[in-house]
UniProtKB/TrEMBL annotation:
Catalytic reactions on record: tRNA(Phe) + L-phenylalanine + ATP = L-phenylalanyl-tRNA(Phe) + AMP + diphosphate + H(+)
Organism: Magallana gigas (Pacific oyster)
Signal peptide: none
Protein name: Phenylalanine--tRNA ligase, mitochondrial
Similarity field: Belongs to the class-II aminoacyl-tRNA synthetase family.
Annotated PANTHER family: PHENYLALANINE--TRNA LIGASE, MITOCHONDRIAL, PHENYLALANYL-TRNA SYNTHETASE
Phylogenetic classification of the source organism: Eukaryota, Metazoa, Spiralia, Lophotrochozoa, Mollusca
Amino acid sequence: MGKNLHCKHNHPLNLITRRIENYFNNNYRNNWRAPMFSKFDRISPVVTLTQNFDSLLVPSDHPSRALSESYYLNSEYMLRAHTSAHQSDLIKQGLDAFLVLGDVYRRDTVDASHYPVFHQMEGVRLFSKQELFSHLGDTSRVTFFENGSRDATKQERHTIETSLCLEENLKNTLRNLANNLFGDDVEMQWVDAYFPFTHPSWELEIKYQGEWLEVLGCGIVEQEILSSAGADSRVGWAFGLGLERLAMRLYSIPDIRLFWSEDSRFLDQFNVEDPNTKITYKPFSKQSPVINDVSFWVPDDFSENDFYDIVRNIGGDIVENVELFDNFVHPKTKRKSKAYRITYRHMERSLTKREANEIHSGIVAAGVQQLGIQER
Ligand code: FA5
Ligand code: MG
């Protein structure tokens, strides 16, 4: 915590942040020609469960609230799992358009595009009726709100034209952002999604190394959130994008662990004044991996994220990937067993088999002690 990589001069997360901010500042201005979006990049990542969940209408039994998903400090406070945690507070303060940048924390899978700490940028924009339908000469002929029903394209309180206009505005904003970052011929696709705080909702995927990489979630803000925050006369959209994912695609950074590297052979490649400078990351060392398998019996309350957490805590950035490759239930005893393949590779120097094996044994020992697993 507290590294604020997104604020660190010459860090790739700072470069991409500045590009995105420039995009919003150059293309979105208010009536006085000042930047429309206010920016917040130093809000503490310690938030209340109310901010992270309740203010966003996350139901009390939603899986994202599980202890195995997030990092809790106590029953009241946690490390934010997304920058959406600040939406409601900032809307309450009267803001109509804002960007929030920061570090977010999650227990998650261990591979090249997932890390327990990463950075998000939240964007929210609210509209009055005049603003949303500003392209129409006469807005008296369209209806902004109704008491209708919810379906795949809209919420109860929104008319179909309100919902479709918001969707178009949101998707144009993000599509133009993606073209601004990656050029006009980047391949992208919208995927229908679900979030408790937006409806309808989408995720944007971008082609990276031949595969679709999810880079952001977004949608039309639930009207109930706006009314609780005192902005019921407005409607709006919101998005939350993963800065590492975008930076990986933009600079061809192959592994998310590299963002935490303090090796000058990494950082020096991003030492430029102008964030628009074209940079393609050149790997400075190709170390060979050590691959170790482990299989064990698991207790009934076993959660995969708890095991991933132990792997990252003990193995640190030496662990490149954890893959579940066998799931077995004993036909008679019904005991469950799992087998994982752990790939160890140092990003900056070579790793001996012995060193990797020691870490591996440490991981297994911690699993036995903390999770009650039993090695097979
Ligand atoms: C969210 O966090 C929502 N708050 C986004 C949102 C905001 C939706 C506003 C609607 C309105 P999601 O869990 O999909 O959604 O994460 C958003 C992005 O964060 C992902 O698309 C991905 O780019 C990035 N991300 C998620 N998990 C990780 C991880 N473990 N490591 C790195 N990046 C991640
Ligand atoms: Mg997602």
